[in-house]
Amino acid sequence: VIENIDIRKILDSRGNATVEIDITTENGFGRAAAPSGASTGALEVVAFPEKGIGSIINTFNEQVKRELLGINADETTLIDDTLKEIDGTDNLSSLGGNITVAISLAAAKAAASSYNLPLYLFLGGNLKNEIPYPLGNMINGGAHAGKNAPDIQEFLVVPVGAQNITEAVFANVQVHKKIGELIKVKDTLSTGGKGDEGGWAPNLSNYEALEIQSRACEEISNETGIKIRPSLDLAPSELWDGSKYVYTREGVTRDTGEQIEFLKEIIDTYQMFYIEDPLREDDFEGFAELTRMVGDKCIICGDDIFVTNSQILARGIEIGAANALIIKPNQIGTLSDTYQTVKLAKDNSYTPVVSHRSGETTDETIAHLAVAFGAPLIKTGAVGGERIAKLNELIRIQEEMPDPVMATLK
Ligand code: PGA
Ligand code: ZN
């Protein structure tokens, strides 16, 4: 039974304000904080109401808190429904999805703690003891870096040959270090600066960055014997001007057909393992076309297009848009809605990829969600305190599992 709830304003990794929730039960305690995006999808729930965090903390203390006291912390759906009812809108714009998601997750963590279970076991565990592969962030561009960085938002890698999570996260940081060295050789004026998610933010064109990414994967694969493959998140809604994709750094534009050609070319040339948001968020047809063309050799993942929303995902499933999707609990605002989307995805053979946001805290919850949901991939950076909080938690989870194995990648 929830005995007390506290809300506080804390910092996120960009230095912006976010909220943290503490929930106390008779014999349990749960704490969760909400992250924030920079390249958010248009149909995400509203993270914070316009009136600001100070005012929402007052509303919480005066109106929300007493509705939740006395509910069992393990009644996730009841807690989430209560929050949605108090909010009263269909996009959580009055309470803010960041407030509701932090409450929803903190309650689950309090319940887990009162049963003396880690969160992933409380949420049903993972019958096969599978650990997700980490999609490590290597180079940042687009909305996550400065104007001379590549237009492509994220250059990622997956250590597909790793035997365990420790090998996997250390393989990723070796690639990160190697890329840092290669950038300095290419750009002697490089300051070694990084973007929002801990990847390097270099003065490089898209193709220069692709070359360096690919070379680093190859060199570290050879050095370690662990196969590592390149991946991307283009976040191209940020590049779309209404009729074409504008690549400012490269000085070129691409219409939808040219964008698809460009994607096909880089998927083949660089043997891309995974491409997230290849096209703008409302181009369901384009996603379906690309998936038909390359979906057997490359994971095509939808982030801004589906925004962790089961109804929007259902539209994509109908026409075969993408074969994977990003799961970000604060895009939809509650744990139960997040789970519903994961379930729909898995029932339709879409790969769920549990993900951080560009603005993060040291909250480690998504490591548990990825394991409990049986997600074969988790995207949570490679370096930086708020990123390694999740990666190190996966190492601990692996340690306490009876016979841990890496997840199966398609
Ligand atoms: P965001 O971006 O957290 O800034 O929305 C991350 C992503 O696009 O995956
Ligand atoms: Zn994305």
Automatic annotation (TrEMBL):
Substrate binds at H144, E154, E276, D303, S355, H356, R357, S358, K379. This is Enolase. CDD domains: enolase (cd03313). (2R)-2-phosphoglycerate binds at Q153, K328, R357, S358, K379. Mg(2+) binds at D233, E276, D303. Catalyzes the reversible conversion of 2-phosphoglycerate (2-PG) into phosphoenolpyruvate (PEP). It is essential for the degradation of carbohydrates via glycolysis. Pathway: Carbohydrate degradation; glycolysis; pyruvate from D-glyceraldehyde 3-phosphate: step 4/5. The active site is at E197, K328. Its cofactor is Mg(2+). The keyword Transmembrane helix does not apply. Pfam families: Enolase_C (PF00113), Enolase_N (PF03952). GO terms for molecular function: magnesium ion binding; phosphopyruvate hydratase activity. InterPro entries: Enolase, Enolase-like_C_sf, Enolase-like_N, Enolase_C, Enolase_CS, Enolase_N. Mg(2+) is required for catalysis and for stabilizing the dimer. SMART domains: Enolase_C (SM01192), Enolase_N (SM01193).
